Fold:
Amino acid sequence: MARLLADRPTDTLTIGEMARLLGHSHGAVRNAALTLVRRGEAGQSGSGQPSFRANAKTAAAAQSAVISPPGTHAPRAQTAATSRTMIPAAATPKRSGPIRRAGGQLYHPRELADLPDVEALNRLRDADVPVLLYGPPGTGKTSLVEAAFPDLLTVAGDGDTTVGDLIGEYTQADGGGYVFQYGPLVTAMTEGRALLIDDATLVSPKVLAALYPAMDGRRQIQVKAHKGETIKAEPGFYVVAGHNPGVHGAVLTEALSSRFSVQIQVGTDYDLALALRVDARVVRVARHLARQVELGELGWAPQLRELLSYQKTEAVLGTKAALANLVGIAPVEDRDAVADAVVKAAGVQQVAPLTLGKQLPATAARQPPGTGSAHRGRSR
Structure:
C-alpha cells in the first residue's frame, strides 16, 4: 500500500482505485490505508468516501513490511488468501484466540460449522452469502460481526428508521444551501465494506425494500432523492443482519428471510462466562432460567451481556446489590421466578430489585480545631 502511494506522489487515490490497482479486497485495502494514516505515513482527505495520498514518510514506510501483532490484523485478509489458494477447510488453521474489536473490547471466538465463527463469516462473505444472526439481546451477535469485519458499518434499526437513514438525504450546509449526504448503505457499496443492519426486524418492510436490489443479482440501487443516481456495489460489499425474536415488534417477514441464505442462532456461551470469572452461582442461575425459557415456562433469562454487567456491578457495589440489580432488570412478569432462582443458588434469604431507601440523616459538619463553644467560653 505504501509503495503504491509512494510511486504516485501527486495522486489522490480512493479505496476503490487502490483495490483495483493492487488486486486486493476493498476491506483489506481500507484497513491498510487507515493503518498508514494512524502511523502518520500517509495523508487522508474526506470521511464518507475518503481518499489517500503520500506524505513525507510514505516512501520510508514502503521499504519494509509491517507485521501486525497477533490478534490485530483483519480476519478478512486471511480468508481471502485462503480462498485463492483453495486450501480445504480441514487444513485451514483455526483462529481461536481473542480478537480485539474496533472499540478495544476483546471478542472470544466460538465454534461454527467446525470453524471459528469469525472465519466462517468471512468465508460466507467471500462467497457473497448474506447471513442473518438471531437470538436474544445480549448474546453477542453484534460483537461477533464487529470482530469478523473490521471495515464494518452499522445501522441501528428501529421502527423510526427511514430510507434516508440507509441511502442518505439532503442536509443543510454551512453556507446555507443543501447538500446530499450519502448514508451507510451507499458508503458500504462504494467502498466495498460490510454493512450490519442491527435489529433489522424492527425496521419497516418498506424501508428494507430499498436494500434488496443491492443484495440480489443487480447489486445496485437507484438514489431517487439524488437525481436518480445509480450506485453500484464494489467487490467486498456484504450485508449481515441481526434479529431478536423475543423483542416486541420484531417481525421476520418472508421477504427479509428469503434474502439471507444462512441463518445462525446465537445463544449465550455460559462456559465463556465462567472462564471470564463471572460468579459461578449466578451463571448457574442463568443456565436454570434459560432452560425454563426453552420450555416456554419463562420469557427471560440473563445473557452474557447481563452476566458481565453483574460482574462489574458486584465489583463496585458488592454482591448483595448486584443480585438485587439482576432481579430488577428482569421483566416484571418474570421477576418472581428470577428472584426464587437467585435465592436458591446464592443461599440468601430473600432478594428484591435494587431500590432507593429512606433519606440518610444529616451529619454535623466537623469543626476545625480550636473552635467551638468551649473555646469561645475561654476567650476574653
